[in-house]
Amino acid sequence: MLFPGILGRFLSKDVGIDLGTATTLVYVRGEGIVLAEPSVVAVYKGTSRVLLNGEAVGEVAKAMLGKTPGNIEAIRPMRDGVIADYSITEAMLSYFIRKVQPHSWGVAPQVVVAVPSGITSVEKTAVRESAKRAGASRVHLVSEPKAAAIGVGLPVGEPVGNMIVDIGGGTTEVAVISLGGIVTSESLRIAGDEFDEAISQHMRRTYNLMVGEATAERVKIELGSAYPLEEEKTMVVKGRDLIAGLPRTATIRSEEIREALKEPVEAILSAVKQTLERTPPELSADLIDRGITLAGGGSLLRGMDKLISRETGLPVTVADDPMTAVVRGTGAILEDIDNNDVRDLLEADADNEGR
After folding, report:
1. Is the entire prediction scored with pTM above 0.70?
2. CATH 3.30.420.40 matches 159-190+263-320
């Protein structure tokens, strides 16, 4: 075949993937973000066989969470930002790649995957192998904080301090970036999932009421906050009484949910402070003016920016469309992947894998 690389570009479009604990987002080169679906797969219990002829993935599977009969499981194969179930993650990736590239003519795409900065070399290898078995021809890894910083438009290649706090579903990534590299960082396996779990535990302890994942997430979105609200709110929550075993409701207040979220929120705040303490003085000086940028779905928790600003004394900004920051970063890398400076970003990450 003449010029296989060029021909392959026409037949198969490269993709960037934010393989999140809660949501997977996919960017197709030349098209933008084309998919954002829950990282959930419904399988027959004890197997890796996906329901509905392999179609019970994403939104379809999430609707089944907590509602399946005994022979079916709705599984989240990603935990704390890393792969918890390899075969099901592979099935999920394969489905998403096929969905965004229904006519690839048998030519496998090049893939850029964002991964937490704190994962091990073994975990990175697992991501690579899963992506390759799912249909990728070549897999590049980029650290999530770097991808998020690129995605929100920070000048990561310049000799200035850029601080990003990416609060996802499974991990919180805190990093100071300069000249294309991560100067100092913290990768914390506490994020949006822990917010949901803290709310579930609060409902059990305070109201003897068991609620599902979807209900806890809804409470977080409607009542959750990290800083006092101008107008506090209430909400009626439905669940199962732990004593009587019967359906019951309870009316809860935003103040008590803020208290329930205090422990995971303070853990994230501590990671931010630790990263700042390790930042070189010249870059710290840059941050006085440039401040901190928040990204990821967890940054939408009301008052998170105000709390971090109060505790650090720095200006804090929530990025536009923070939930897509990481995948937009992988997309920016893909669109300019032939540029040597962009390749250096990926090669730097590859160099760090052996450390």
Report:
1. yes
2. yes
